[in-house]
Amino acid sequence: MYTKLPLRTASELIDRLHIVEDEKRDIFIDELLETKEQKILGFLNQYGFNLAAEKESVLSSFGNIDYLLRDGIGIKLACRWNKLEPGANLNGTDFIPELIKKAQDSPIEIDYFVFGTQSPWLETGARNLMEGQECHTLHGFYSEEKYLNCLKKRARKGVLTIVVLAMGMPKQEHLANMLRKSVSGPILVVCGGAIIDFQAERFDRAPALMRRLNLEWLFRLISEPQRLFRRYMLGIPKFLYYMVANK
Hints:
Layout: H1 12-15, H2 25-33, E1 38-44, H3 46-54, H4 56-63, E2 67-70, H5 73-81, H6 92-105, E3 110-116, H7 121-130, E4 136-138, H8 144-154, E5 160-166, H9 171-181, E6 187-191, H10 195-199, H11 208-212, H12 216-223, H13 225-245
Parallel strand pairs: 1-2, 1-6, 3-4, 3-5, 5-6
Helix pairs in contact: 3-4, 3-13, 4-9, 12-13
């Protein structure tokens, strides 16, 4: 029911991107909130593309995402390389708060879950993201069964469930597919990466000018050189190679 046709290369993910123009962001969010099925919202950036190019199981997880959004200048370049319009840059750090804000302003009854990161950032970030709205939280170091059991026990029948995963790639994409299959009612599983850490102000956002110039990756590299050196300084050349070689 959930598995799409299998992918052979990471470049095929570009064709599966859900392209959204800026002026249609609100319409797209309404579509997400009105789902009556089990859906996954995810974001494809240069790092995720590399992971999918290097491991078949990761490619499969990304391939099963229902709404895969473009995140970053690298995927914009890949869209151009594949002769596709890239649409708006919808990174999770900006888009997920928009989604949650509109969900809370809607008349729809919703149960919220946040799985990922660690204390005290989990509690602080979840509270900030949800603006005080009650939500169920679990840190990001439990077994998969723990998250499945929590969702099965606490998700109410007939009520839209929104689950924000803040575990990083590719763990969250794999878990998203498992969570989606564990409920029969409407659910939106959101692969949020560092969203909760940013909401908790554990990490700083790049200045607005750098974000407008698509240089947030550079700011993060300067801020966390040891953790992100491989992702960017080695990852960007690999991304360019995979983008050309897998076309």
